[in-house]
Amino acid sequence: MKILILNCGSSSIKYQLMNMSDQNELLAKGLLDRVGMKNSVLSHTKAGCAKIKITKDVPTHVDGVGFILEILTDPENGVVKDINEIKAAGHRVVHGGEAFSSSVLINESVKKDIESCNIFAPLHNPHNLTGILAVEKILPHIPQVAVFDTSFHQTIPKHAFLYALPYIAYEKHRIRRYGFHGTSHKFVAEKACKMLDVDIKTQKIITCHLGNGASITAIKHGESVETSMGFTPEEGLIMGTRSGDVGLGAFLYLIEKENLNFKEANDLVNKKSGIIGITGISSDMRDIELAAEQGNERAQLALTMYDYRIKRYIGAYAAVMNGVDIIVFTGGIGENADITRKGIIEDMEYLGVDFDFEKNKGVREKDIVLSKPDSKVKVVVAMTNEELVIAQDTYRIIKEQFKMK
To answer: What is the pLDDT of residues 154-210, one digit of tens each?
Structure first.
């Protein structure tokens, strides 16, 4: 079954086309950027071929999905002869609120529930829904599935997800901690257990999804029991442009002193803080590592702060689960930044970590165990693949619902 996987942002559409079977074959992938602007750019890679780039004005997401389907059926760069070969579509949806604890077949009710969560994720959900409607318009005959970033975290207990605000804030407005990156945390936890040949139902796992957005999750016996992101993705770890945890008193004081309106305050913690806020250089960890090597004190400070925050969460989550068996690194930074992994894992012998610092050097984009053989706590790098999870969930749900092969 050929399945189109879409991840729609405000001005971009990330896509893959997969042939789902025993092999889970990736046929093509790409990114359409600058949707709604002049000179939109499609970067497309057909399996086994070099990447190509095409520039073309793409005014809307509907036009964007149409453009992607054009390239997928192109005689030279495409991988299917006719769009009717595509039997289903799977979509990343950032926020499912409390309505969805698992991936679902999309119908009118589901679309309304996704729209009702727009207020929780205004930068993501509306565009996720736009992608669903675009496919519905162009390929009205195919079933679609929504896979939610938040659903994996619906097992977190109430005492952990509630804020100590007046209870009416939860009852009336559903203000609580939801968590994000759930698809990635679930995927790498399962992968790490396969790498180590252990049963996930017996393991206490801490997964560190470290990219421009970053979160950490405690997974006990296969279920998420705590996670660092909260009501919004801003909470928790220090990120590229997000502050992560910050004292509300300090934030309110700054709003008053700088006379910030709502948008300015929101931009402050989501777009101007984190690594770029500390350094004033960049939100890209590679730039910060280079600056730190050249002696930039604020870059060095930012790296230390970044590692320290993650280390603090690992310790807290080990306490929450009464121990830890596996620590997993994933995401663009987790998979590539050996300096960051070293900074986080140093001085964790008390947990039972015996880390192979030599083996860690230079490890990039590779599934690998970095702890020594006798280490009580295993440390693993596991490359994430959220699109594969979306495809697998879509395939499973479509097969169950329509008895398709």
So the answer is: 999 999 999 999 999 999 999 999 999 999 999 999 999 999 999 999 999 999 999
How far does Cα 398 stand from its chain's mean position?
24
CA dist., res. 338 & res. 60, Å (int):
40
Closest CA relative to residue 190, chosen from 233, 152, 229: 152
Question: What does the alpha-carbon distance between residue 72 and residue 177 come to, in Å, rounded to a whole number?
Answer: 39
Question: Count of CB atoms within 10 A of residue 383's CB?
Answer: 17
**In which residue are the tokens 């989550």 written?**
317
The closest alpha carbon to 101, from 235, 218, 224, belongs to 224
Outline which parts of the chain fall under CATH 3.30.420.40. Answer: 2-148, 197-386
Token reading at 124? 């993501």
Instruction: Clarify whether 149 is annotated catalytic.
Output: yes
Q: How far apart are CA 132 and CA 124, in angstroms?
A: 13
How far the first Cα of the chain sits from its last, in Å, is 7
Integer Cα distance of 400 and 389 in angstroms: 16
- The torsion of the CA quartet 184, 187, 189, 193, rounded to 10 degrees, works out to -160
Which of the following is catalytic: 149, 307, 325, 338? 149
Tokens of 179: 């968590």
Distance (Å, rounded) from C-alpha 295 to C-alpha 353? 30
Phi-psi region for residue 172, left (φ > 0), alpha (ψ -120 to 50) or beta? Answer: alpha
Express each pLDDT in 87-138 by its tens digit: 999 999 999 999 898 999 999 999 999 999 988 888 789 989 999 999 999 9
Q: What pTM value is reported for the model? A: 0.90
User: CATH homologous superfamily for 2-148?
Assistant: ATPase, nucleotide binding domain (3.30.420.40)
Encoded amino acid at 275, one letter: I
CATH number for 197-386: choose from 3.40.50.720, 3.90.1170.40, 2.160.20.10, 3.30.420.40: 3.30.420.40
DSSP 274: H
pLDDT exceeds cutoff 70 at 404: no
pLDDT of 302 above 80: yes
Q: Which two tokens stand for residue 67?
A: 């453009």
